[in-house]
Every structure is written in C-alpha cells, then in structure tokens.
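User: Can you help me understand a structure? I only have the sequence.
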Amino acid sequence: MERSVPRRERPLRDLNLIRLFARVAEHHSITSAARVLGMPKSSVSRGLAELERGLGVQLVHRSSRHVSLTEIGTVLYDRVRRILDELDEVTSTMEKLRGTPSGVLRINTSIGLGHAVLSLLLPTLLEAYADLDISVELAQQRISLLSDESDVVIRTGTLEDSSLIARKLGTLEVALYGSPAYLDRNGKPACIEDLAGHTIVDRPTTTPGSWIVHGPNQDVSVAAKPRLTVNDPALARLVVLRGGGLGWLPSFMCRDDIAAGDLIELLPGYRRDPIEVHALIQPHRIQSPKVRVFLDLAVRTFESPNFRA
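Assistant: Let's start by predicting it. Here is the structure, written out as tokens:
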C-alpha cells in the first residue's frame, strides 16, 4: 500500500524538483540521477522526498539498489516528461534565435562614415546572415535614439552624456593631404610652420585659430586658422581633391586617392588627434543578435591591417 505524506501547496511549480524526479524515474536510481544532475546523492534524495511531501503521495518504491515508480509516480512521469520535452524544445529554439541574427538591422550614421566604414561591413553581413536585412540612413545631423527607430547610431567625436550605451569601435588616423593642382599653384609646405601661409580645410575645433599637431619628436602648437571648417570628412575630402586647400583628413578615406595620384600626403611625420568612432545603442537592444554581430564585425574591421593600411 502506498503511504500518504503531508501535502505542501503547489509543489509542481518547482521545475528543479520536477526535473530531479524525471531523472530518477529515467535512471531507476538516485545514485545515477545524482551523477547526471551533477548533485550530491543526498540532495537528490531530499529533493525527491520534498516533492512527495508537497504532493502528499509516494512517487517511488525505494530499495538499497533500485528505485521503481509507484502507480501515481508513473502517471506523473508520463505527464511531466512531455512537458519537460516541450520546455527543452522551446529553450533550444530560443537559444537558436538568440544566436542567429534576423529581422531588420537599422543603422544611422554620417555620409562619410557610411562610405568609408559601412561599405566594408555590409557585404560581409549580407553574405553571412541570410535572415538579416539592413536599412541604412545616412544623415549628418545628430538624432535622438530615445525617439528614433535605429538599432545602432554611429558617430565620431566627443559623446554627450546620456542613458545610451556607447561602444568604441575604433579610431581614424588624421593626416595632412593636398591635391597636385593645389600644390602646383601654392607650393608644398616644407615644415609645419609653413601651414600659416596656406588655405587649410579642417573639422570644427574648440580652440579656433590654433591646434595641436603631434610631431615625430614632440607636440607642436600651430597658429593657422582654417579658412574652411567642415563637420563631414567626406565633404572636406572632396574640397581638397578639387584643389580647395590642404586638409586634415582621415587617412583611410584618402588611401585610394593616394594610390591614384589624386592626393599627396604632406608632412608625413605629423598627425592630428585621431577621431574616435562610437556606436550608440539603447540598453534594451545591446543583447540583440543582429546588434552584437554588427558591433563585433565593426571592431574587427577597425583593427584589421587592410583598414589601417
């Protein structure tokens, strides 16, 4: 006759006890179940007893070497086995979804970064993830992610304090460039001080009229007011290409122009502060698979020799 034990309310809400019972039923042994679960034998025995007390029934017949299910235990096992199988299937599906980027990845960035950086990333993403679609909006103005639908916003320069998560993707090295046409008309600067006599194209600065240049031996303060300031390096590059002046430009954006002979690097031992590139993400989107694969690929791209070459 099966013994009766005191009841505890809602014992089947404890999935750990249900799984423990199922393993005992499958292996017909508390010792074997404990080994599979990675638990002490005493803990499995106590858990099984707790479940029986909660249900107010005896679920197993115990002997020194063997455990067999009672009639009620058999009924319970048949029911919970199906539930646990379905739960395992749901868990497996969620893990696959979590690891497989899908849906639409919405990216907002500037025109310059879109041309220079995204043009390298997007073919790889499209090839690697068949279930991922990508929507890119190129806009120079800063947007508010709190009211925007973008998954990732890529920006350069100093970041404003906000509740957004900022991940640094990399840096853009900045050097001085000029076109052959401009240099034919105005001559090539032989030293950093010569820049005071040239038309300079630069990004906006908080110290107008002078800037710090990192030289081969020391930093130098240069008093040369830029005649044109542009917050988009893509536009600055076009102005310099067409002979409008000498420009401090991201080196990566000028690589093809150098190879084609359309731009010449000047004073190669001198550099401006590198431009930091960040991705801004809302906290609830940072764990999204599509966001994670994009961020990881972007960081690897900035670190790659091809990008820095």
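Now, to help you interpret it: Residues 11-81 form a domain with the Arc Repressor Mutant, subunit A fold (CATH 1.10.10.10). The mean pLDDT is 83. Let me know which part you'd like to focus on.
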